[in-house]
Amino acid sequence: MYNPRMKKLTAPLNLCTFTLFIFCLFILPGCTLLFVEKAQTHYVENKVDEAPPAKSLSSQMKKQVVLKYKAQEGDTLDSVALIYYGHASKTGKLAKANGLKPDSPLTPGRVLKVPDPLNFPNPKDLVKKKKTKANEEEDLDKPPISRLDTTPENITNVPRPRVNHAFGPGEKLRFEVRALSMLGGYGVLEVGGSETVKGRPCYPLIAKATTAFPFSMIYQVHDVQTSFFDAVDFISWKFQNDVLEGKHKAQNLELYDQLRHRVERTRKDKPSEEIDTAPFTQDIISCFYYFRLLPMKVGENYSIPTQAGGKNYNLIVEVLNKERISIPFGTFDCIHIKPHVRYATVFRNTDDIDIWLTDDERRIPILVRSAIFIGHVEATLLEATLPKMKETASGSR
User: Fold this and answer.
1) What are the structural domain ranges in the chain?
2) Cα(339)–Cα(373) distance, rounded to whole angstroms?
3) Tens digits of per-residue pLDDT, 205-245?
4) Contact 84, 78 (CB under 8 A)
5) pTM value?
6) How far apart are CA 282 and CA 200, in angstroms?
7) pLDDT for 156-184, tens place per residue?
């Protein structure tokens, strides 16, 4: 059994909980053993459940995506291009798809075809002010979607991974979270055994968070979030959570239709809703596991289409540098990354998260640090049980 210990930093209890969920992995009974010591990783093999072979659906998901948009009062082709592409330079593409000229006026109520959009806004986010010549140039500098989402020249394009050498059923990671140097709670991230969701072999990725005594007497946290992650195509098919944070309770279910690029969200005591999503969309748990499969070169940025809380965004992850991180258990060669979250669904401040992962194929999260207005919150790895990974991925492509 692997037993690293790490120091924790600062922050409110609620933020402690969220700090655990950007990096998550999940366990199955009866698996493998991992030892990490002095920057070296040793594995003891144990038999674990594996996902059955399955054919990749990737080629079907790559088909052109065409959204529909109903023009509102004050819309122009420029303003619609800003929404879906991030820049008015795509006005010509939008006009051509609809048999219009770039300067054609739009009649309110006209339904436009939007081919291969870069952004997938929630319909509730499309309540826009009228654009005028005076503010149109300003809007180009501040499009409705984050500039980080729509700057392809700053994003490293890499092929989708075809194999998984990083994690599998049987992985269990246990973290300690400290706020203001005080123990605030614990988090457990597990990869469960293979389950079938919508006919696809999936691994449950389970993230749990609880407060520690004596804080639990004042503010109880008991969160369980589960993502069902395709073992072949590395995408989410289902996400559910059961949240208890103080007096706040929530139960949510998200069902992904990756072939139609849609997600159906169901929340307790509220009507379900469907929203468009980008191809190969991840949920807030699976996005981190997917990132663990990417090459991670220093100085490069990676973009992952993500949906959380009914909002779509591109999760941008910067690979900053390589560092040696020392914890009470030992010293580890790590990759230092920084995720940029478009919406404050996981962290309050979208640019104040730093994560250190082991610099090997496993990409095990060792330390997570989040800045707050009075210091830091730190989550450090206490224990890890990992499966012995096979040399080839299960499934066929």
Assistant:
1) 13-56+157-385
2) 19
3) 999 988 887 777 777 788 899 999 999 999 999 999 988 77
4) no
5) 0.79
6) 15
7) 889 999 999 999 999 999 998 887 777 88
Tokens matching residue 43: 């594995």
Residues with Cβ within 8 Å of residue 57, at least 6 apart in sequence: 200, 233, 258, 259
Listed in order, strand segments (DSSP E) in the chain are 33-37, 40-44, 66-70, 111-115, 172-179, 182-191, 195-197, 200-211, 221-230, 236-245, 248-257, 262-267, 273-276, 301-308, 311-327, 330-340, 353-358, 365-372, 375-385
> CA quadruple 290, 292, 296, 299: dihedral positive or negative?
positive
The DSSP bridge partners found for residue 178 are: 183, 378
Q: Which two tokens stand for residue 10?
A: 């600062």
Amino acid occupying residue 109: G
Look at residue 287 and give its three-state secondary structure. helix
Single-letter amino acid code for the residue at 99: G
Calculate the alpha carbon distances from 144 to 59, 82, 107, 136, 337 in Å. Answer: 31, 7, 21, 12, 26
CB 110 within 8 A of CB 99: no
Tokens of 32: 């493998």
Tell me the Cα Rg of the chain: 22
Q: Check if the beta carbon of residue 261 is closer than 8 Å to that of residue 243.
A: no
Residue with tokens 């269990």: 172
